[in-house]
Amino acid sequence: MKEPLRKVWLDPIEYGLVVKALHRFRADLLNEDCPTEDVDDLLIKIIDTPVKNRSVELEAR
User: How far apart are CA 59 and CA 41, in angstroms?
Assistant: First the structure.
């Protein structure tokens, strides 16, 4: 069974907090000599997420 996908709307401040938190978590893992591949993949996914105009999305519903 496929796991459900989730869509989250973030304003620019929330987006920045998520990116900074993941970056800090990655830095902590590096300092502890732990693998960072999963965090790297998630960070890239968050950074590469396309920006959509929310008002257009709400009108389509």
Answer: 32
Q: What is the mean pLDDT of residues 3-32?
A: 95
**Residue 3 per-residue DSSP state:** P
| Overall domain count for the chain | 1
Question: What integer best gives the mean pLDDT of the chain?
Answer: 89
C-alpha 13: how far from chain center: 13
- Domain interval for residue 31: 12-49
The pTM assigned to this predicted structure is 0.76
Query: Tokens 């496929």 map to which residue?
Result: 2
| Mean pLDDT for the stretch of residues 4-25 | 94
Could you tell me if residue 45 is inside a domain?
A: yes
